[in-house]
Design goal:
With 218 residues, this protein is an alpha+beta fold. It has 3 domains: 66 residues; 66 residues, SH3 type barrels; 45 residues. The chain is 52% helix and 14% strand. The radius of gyration is 53 Å and the shape is rod-shaped. About 7% of the residues have low confidence.
């Protein structure tokens, strides 16, 4: 706004100067020229002051940014990382560091996923202080890439196959147990029948002969 006003005053001053060249003794024009010159001086000073303040503020901001220590990351640190597929920020864990000190590269794994991704220093940041209460819901989780979808489907089918094999083995074991129990019951019945129907052999118990006088003519 001040610069636009300054330009207006300067145009008006040039017009007054032109008029005074034709009528140098015109007191009204002389007074107007003085007023315009004063306004131009004040406006110029105001602009210079505003620019100085703005420059000082920018310098202070730059120094403050420079003085903020750079976060030093290490393997095992939790962070928010930028996902290359959709540009979103998601919770992750740093698994290893690479690159140079000036151009650090981080190997990270997003929480809930097994795929590893490489990101630059500008693509990771600290978790917010209230992250536990602002943790994104499952519906806001990042989308799986095509490779991750295929890997997930492969593992799903592999697990299903394992379950089928376990179920088949369990069924086979159950059938074996049933067959054995059936065989055991039949064996018990056969043992009980053996020897049945035959009466016990009577054993004649011979009594001791008693001598009676007069027997046999004695």
């Amino acid at each position: 706004m001040d610069k636009a006003e300054l330009e207006t005053y300067q145009v008006q001053l040039s017009q007054v100067e032109l008029a005074l060249s034709n009528d140098p003794d015109n007191a009204e024009l002389v007074s107007l020229r003085s007023e315009l010159q004063e306004l131009i001086d004040l406006t110029t000073a105001s602009i210079a002051q505003a620019e100085a303040a703005s420059s000082s503020k920018a310098e202070s901001s730059r120094k403050a940014t420079t003085n903020v220590p750079t976060k030093t990351w290490a393997a095992g640190d939790d962070c928010l990382a930028k996902y290359s597929a959709d540009g979103g920020w998601y919770p992750a864990r740093i698994t290893s560091l690479g690159g140079s000190t000036e151009n650090r590269v981080y190997s990270i794994v997003f929480k809930g996923y097994n795929t590893t991704e490489l990101v630059k220093a500008g693509e990771i940041k600290t978790l917010p202080a209230n992250y536990a209460t602002t943790m994104p819901s499952a519906s806001n989780k990042r989308k799986l890439s095509k490779a991750e979808e295929e890997e997930k489907e492969r593992k799903k089918k592999k697990n299903e196959k394992k379950l089928e094999v376990k179920a088949a083995k369990a069924k086979e074991q159950t059938n074996k147990q049933a067959t054995w129990q059936k065989f055991a019951k039949k064996s018990e019945k056969k043992v009980g029948v053996t020897g049945s129907g035959n009466g016990m052999t009577e054993v004649a118990v011979r009594g001791k002969h008693k001598f009676v006088p007069g027997e046999d003519g004695y």
